[in-house]
Write a structure and sequence with these properties.
Layout (H helix, E strand, L loop, with lengths): L2 H4 L4 E2 L3 H8 L5 E7 L3 H14 L8 E6 L4 H10 L9 E6 L2 E6 L1 H4 L4 H15 L1
């Protein structure tokens, strides 16, 4: 499940320090996927995130934490996602260290991957 993302260039943030270093970047864009083992991650979220990368504009850095496995890293990532409540899967876009776009689990469940991918592409077009 993690390899679905790392094979297309996502960096695993498996410690709180790696999370802070990536998400506090003062310049550029960072995409963070809070990965999970649930069906909506497999059926919609991961395919959507991969498909969203087929876009002229895309984030400069691709990152992921895995909820349920990288516990401390995921907890640290969720601090960066406030005021949004904990959600997995979830996808967040940061620009210059600031959260600018968020897709929570309730936006993922029941939606096809192509709809989620188009949402992400629109965010990339705006912020990247």
């Amino acid at each position: 499940m993690a390899q679905e993302l790392t094979q297309v260039g996502f960096e695993e943030l498996n410690t709180p320090d790696k999370v802070d270093s990536a998400l506090n970047a003062s310049e550029g864009t960072v995409l963070l996927m809070v990965n999970s083992v649930c069906g909506c991650a497999a059926g919609s979220a991961r395919p959507a995130v991969r498909a969203s990368l087929d876009n002229e504009k895309k984030p400069g850095r691709l990152t992921t934490v895995f909820a349920g496995f990288d516990l401390e890293a995921t907890e640290q990532a969720r601090k960066h996602l406030l005021p949004y409540p904990p959600s997995s899967p979830a996808v967040a876009l940061f620009k210059d260290g600031r959260l600018v776009h968020m897709i929570e689990r309730h936006h993922i469940e029941g939606n096809p991957a192509n709809v989620i991918a188009e949402n992400l592409k629109a965010a990339f077009d705006e912020y990247c």
